[in-house]
Amino acid sequence: MNPATQQTWNQANLKANATYQAERRRVTVEPITRLEGHGKIDIFLDDAGDVERAYLQIPELRGFEVFSLGRPAEEMPQITSRICGVCPTAHHMAATKALDDLYQVEPPPAARKIRELVYNTFVLEDHALHVYILGGPDFIVGPQAPPEKRNILGVIEKVGVEVGKRVISMRRRLRELIAYFGGKVIHPVLGLPGGVSKGLKPEDLPQFKELAKDGLDFALFTLQVFEDLVLKNPDYVKLITGDTYTHRTYYMGLVDAQNKVNFYDGLIRVVDATGKEYAKFPARRYRDFIAEHVEPWSYVKFCFLKPIGWHGFEEGPQSSVYAVAPLARLNVAEGMATPQAQKAYEEFFNTLGGKPVHHTLANHWARVVEMIYAAERMVELVNDPEITNTNLRVIPSAKPSVGVGVVEAPRGTLYHHFETDDRGLITKANLIVATQNNAARIAMSVDKAARGLIKKGQVSEGLLNMVEMAFRAYDPCFGCATHSLPGHLPLSVSIYNRERHLLRQLVQS
Amino acid sequence: MNAPAAELAPASAAPAKKVLVLGLGNDILGDDAVGLNIAREIRKRLSASDPMEVRETCEMGLSLLDDIVGFEELVLLDAVQTGRAPPGFVHEFEGAELRVLPSGSPHFLGVGEVLALGRRLGLSVPQRVKIFAVEVQDPFTVTTSMTAPLRQAFPAIVEHIWCATRQLL
Fold it and tell me: What does the DSSP 8-state code read for residue A328?
């Protein structure tokens, strides 16, 4: 390691600790101890050289509420979708639903169906990107493959160039559907309180029908790829079900009236570690169930189940930690609303030993099950006679005050909460994003992986990769932050001794 | 859905221009918008017949493929926070210095990876890439204005990048 870096750190650390000691009643810590970084992990060792605690640092957006104050609520679907370059459609839809709630207006059936069509298209596209490109190196290529193969070209080599072309082409077509309704994918302008801005012309319907059908073929094909390359490999199955990546926590996700997975709408259902329903509530009541815990070492606010109270980064019945995202959604639901997805859902739980599944890495498989549902739902919607109806808007007339909207973003439950004055100008804005919901469990996964790989000061080879796999399964959103580095997203691990002196830095290279 | 559905062609019509100047960033995240802002300034200086085209995108990763296919040369304008240079400092990287596979993170699709993927799939991606990454102070605060040091340095940054970019023609 660079001695200058080490020296700078140690000096700054002494200073920060002195300040902290002097003001220990403060909850916040001087910035130097809250190292900002992109997927930066800090590991603190005890006297014996074993892991005392490992921390994952995720940069957090600042100033969102200040930026929103005084703006017309109708701008929120545009503003929030601009926050993140990864899931603009999820923010757009959550904000649009918050506006429905704010103005107490229910969109007409065709508008609701168009929103749902766009949303399922988005989930299918985003999940495909993760399965093949982001998670692909872990599963399609495999964690034991040589480093030079563990990348997108390794994935292409394994699945073939034709499949690679199919993935890219499918992704493009799905994005074209989103753009048809919302304009630019990145800044959609579809959602309005009480409806949508654009309908589906009957003459354009055939190409959407074809796309939905191809999307379903593609999703089923992806399941086949996953089964062939992952599930037929006993080593992978062992890895998925291994203790390192397993946590017994609560799960949260949206369900429809039949308790089936739904990305767009429904009630929020929470099940405990045995799979029993713990709570079921509408978006408006989210504050009765979710509270945020602050740790001095992180900007991230860790969500927990409020009625239980915060009991630390623990699993088991006393813990209030919960997870969101694909695995959580499958765990909270009693099935999938469409036939092929239901079949895949049953196979998932049969193979992994029944509900709920606590293996974090099973998120990758759950994502494939959800791709099938998203595609089947697209097929249903484009074949629904109402989808081309031109009644697309109910004009709001109620006086605004509070609006809460929820959707299942690909990465998990996303809440938007706005409050306004009588004129509809924002007086308060709060978002709870998926990665925040998952933050406590992600921290536990990183910590557990580190504990298993560092013993008595000895750091196992492959630490970076194994720790990285622990949090990548959640697909945590570094969102906009990843913009700030052209070309690569380095993961760095810093290891400190008992006195908080930096011993070693590992950087992915 | 105006592009041919099943093809890999870019979303817009095939570009006739030689050089693509692509500004990256988020326009409501303070300094993160610097690449977009520079792109806008450069666009103002171009005539319609210029062999250079300027685009802006808030997306990243695989989405870049949609923009870059069909161009011979690519110039990227982005924000970077290395902490090793003052805000406004312009880091320059050439294609060969890019962390292309396999040295980058296997999971984040960076520019090097997108180019490598494009080539592997037989798409006509730019042969040469140059990156101008402006050191920024605060790319995490939601605001439409850049920080003072960056605003101050901005005209000089634009001039520098403009001159460097024109040499590519």
Answer: H
